[in-house]
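Reply to thread "Modeling small-molecule complexes from scratch"

Following up on the discussion above, here's a worked example others can learn from. I took a protein sequence and the SMILES for magnesium ion and predicted the complex. Inputs first:
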Amino acid sequence: MELNGEYDMSLITQARTSDVRFPTSDFLDGSDAMNPDPDYSVAYLTVETDAGETGHGFVFTIGRGNDVVVAAIDSLKHYVVGSEVDALLADMGATSQMFINDSQLRWLGPEKGVEHMAIGAMLTALWDLKAKREKKPLWELLADMTPEQLVDLVDFRYLSDAITRNEALDILRCAEPTRAERKADLLANGYPGYSTAPGWLGYSDEKMVGLCQEAVKDHGFGQIKLKVGGSVEDDWRRLALAREAVGPDVKLAVDANQVWDVPEAIEWINQLQDYDLAWVEEPTSPDDILGHRARGCQIVCVQSHR
Ligand SMILES: [Mg+2]
C-alpha cells in the first residue's frame, strides 16, 4: 500500500486469540437432529499492526473443542506476527497458500477439520484488515477485483479436472459487463437472506410458530429454515404449523445436519413432499460423494454452514 507516496512498512505486532462460549444449550438454541445440546462458541482472532489497525476473524464451533481450534490458530501465529502488512495483504492467494502448505501442519488438514478452521480464522482476519485499509466493506473489495485477481485467490490443484484457471477466468470475464448493474441492484435492494432462528429442533411448537411469524412479519424474511430428522411425524406437524404461520408465499427449507444415511434420506424427504420444500440441507455426510450422486437426481441438496 502506498500512503502519501511513501511505502508503508507497517508490521503485524500481535495475533490474539480468545475462546468465547455462550450457554445456548440452556434453551436449546441451535439444537438439531445431530447436535441436540450445542453451546454456540467462537475461536476468535484479532491481528494488530504497529499503526494501531486491527483485523478480526473467527470460526464457529458448538462448544467442546473450541480450545482445540484456538490452539490450532495459535500454531499459525508465527506466520503473521512480525511480518510486513503489505507483503501479507498484497497477494492473498499466496498468503492462503503459505498457511495451507506448512509442510508439517498440513498433516492435520489442511483443507478439512480443525486446521482448515484455523486457517479460515487467519484469512478472515487478514481480509478484514485489507478491507479496512482500502476503506471498503469486504463484499465490495471482492466485488471490485478483476477476474484475474479473483482467480489468483484460488488454488486449482485439486480442481483442475473439474475447472481450470482459464475456464474460471472465462466465466468471470463473461459476467464482467453486467457487474456494475448487479452491484447497483445489490446496493438498492439488498441480498435476500433467510432466517433459521425459528427452526431449532428443541423449540416448542408455540415458540417455533411465534418466531416464524416474527421472522416474516417483523423482519421481512422471504424464507425460513427448520431443522428436521428427529421423527417424521414431528417434521410433518412442525412443517404444517410453519406453513400456516408464514402463509403460502414464504419459502420453507429444511436441514437434517447429516443425520440420515442415503436410502433413509431419500425415503424421509419423499415423505415431506407435500410441504413444497425450497431445498434440503445436509441430508447425509457432506463427504459422501457416491451418496451425493445417488441422491442428486432425486433431491435438491445444499451443504451446510450451520
Ligand atoms: Mg446446516
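What I'd highlight from this example: The pocket of magnesium ion is lined by residues 255, 257, 281-282, 304, 306 (CB under 6 Å). The beta strands are 2-3, 6-7, 12-21, 41-49, 54-61, 195-199, 223-227, 251-255, 277-281, 301-302. Questions welcome below.
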